[in-house]
Specification:
The complex is a heterodimer of chains A (about 55) and B (about 290). Chain A has about 55 residues and is mainly β. Chain A is built from no helices and five strands. Chain A has a single domain, classed as Rubrerythrin, domain 2 (Single Sheet), CATH 2.20.28. Chain A has a three-stranded antiparallel beta sheet with strand order 3-4-5, with no helix packed on it. Chain B starts with a strand and ends in a 6-residue tail after the last helix. Classes of the chains: A mainly beta (about 55), B alpha+beta (about 290).
Amino acid sequence: MSEADCPECGAGVDLHDDLEVGEILDCGTCGAELEVLAADPPELDTAPELEEDWGE
Amino acid sequence: MKIGILYSRIRQDEKLLLNELRDRDHEIEKIDVRKHQFGLDGTTANIDDLDLAVDRCLSTSRSLYATRFLDHYDVPVVNSPETADVCADKVKNSLALDGAGVPTPDTKVAFTVDAAMEAIESFGYPCVLKPVVGSWGRLMAKLDSKSAAEAILEHKKVLGHYEHKVFYVQEFVDKPGRDIRVVAVDGEPVAAMTRTSDHWLTNAAKGGDTDAFELDDTARDLVEKASDAVGGGLLGVDLMEVGGEESGEYTVHEINHTVEFKALNGCVDVDVPATVVDWLETKANEATPEATQ
């Protein structure tokens, strides 16, 4: 398991091994939703806000 | 086979699909639709040699246009843009179901507050007001009184996007605290579950409890007809039991075209992503017979 910094609060975010680009993670410290921009090396950014037409 | 995944966010559902495809050594092209342009003559996305594209866009608007463009480029895509078009819009969904003789909740559409109020009064209270585009139970309103109806209609008129001025009014179905979600591929059920809640909205996304459900022949027949009514594909068909639990009588209230299945996969014995990938392999072979397994 690797780690990356939360772009929102700077705390370390634990990353699981099968990290997928486009996946959303929660920062365990500040609760921010984070999008995985790159898996190797890991790069995180704050995830887009919920849009009205999202769903299934 | 080489399979394209149209997406803008990878949910657990997409991870389940990706893992299953990788386990079977299929080549995957992940296409983040946010990063590309789609022109009349082609796209910046790499769609070369795709045997099949799978639309998993979280955003309905992106789903509708991206699938339309891929179809334009002669890339086989599931679900088809025609299916997406019907499923994305509750009005078209209701019309398709009714037109196919599938029982669906009685619905009226009105374009002004006054006409909507007349429709609401004709149903009586409670009845339901839904956005024509939306998911996960968002912006659904159970109208318990005339004063509540007046307030919500005014809010929609004043604050709403133009789509919220298409007032979709529906009878309230007194379901037995649960509804039924069926994931189906071209009308063939993969698995089904109930979603139970004390709240009138029982969506899994709203925290409804899920449990495996065994479909009877009546429900299976409705799922097949409902799927055909919207053009088939990988669908989430939602049913409500009319007249109480296990009454054997159903109404189909919704069909979803980018169906989420992680909750279903977690409560049934069927391997849902594996069954979906079986179906994707079949679709790819139908579309491009040279597609390798």
